[in-house]
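Reply to dn_fold:

You asked what the input looked like. This is it:
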Amino acid sequence: MSTPPPALELKHVTKRFGDKVAVDDLSLTLAPGTFLGLLGRNGAGKSTTLKMATSLVDPTSGSIHVLGHDLKTHSLEARRLMGVMPEDMALLELLTGAQYLRFVGRMYGLEDAQIDQRGAELFDTLDLKPGTRTLVADYSFGMKKKLALCAALIHGPRVLFLDEPFEGIDAVTNRTIKDILLALQARGVTLVLTSHILEVVEKLCPLIAIIDEGKLKGYGTLDELKQGAESLESLFVNLVGGAPRNGLSWL
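and this is what came back:
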């Protein structure tokens, strides 16, 4: 039996926006079924990395492969295998939720009956209960997050990219989403998740990558990276050089 290709492979990936280097010579390889927590401060390069890995942004240099498909030459084949939940959600807000899922499902070649069945199951599982005529524009922030997750899952992706999936989500749905993600990993789906909630990453993600100023500062399991740090928060602050700040002068 031949060895399956990595689920995600970045080789010496760099992204420049003018004079600013957003991602700097980043290399990492994820085997199928990996659950990676991608961490970094605001502006560290996390979202740019995800946008390149999902072929929304082209790297300035380097190569990216998803399940053996080179994003430079075979991005369409790779995209069919991906589910993507961007931080800004990028929803079509003048559709209802059901209409939006119909649109997404058809883009992946699903039949309407299959889309409706999966959509109803996703809505029920995530406790998403908008009115049948309610437009996405009238959803709350948390409801939009749930809908974006539904759209990322409806076609059964083999690689799932999630940018801040727990932001604005209530505690009950938070638990449901965690259970869904762990079940997907158990089935061999590869997941890449960014979050500023370090406790979530610590509990969910066996593998962690920490980026700062576009560079990979740490990569491995939590135990491998800790090296005496008491928590993931301490490890993160140590790796990105977060010096303690003086208090506000008037307090």
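The longest helix spans residues 171-186.
Hope that clears it up.
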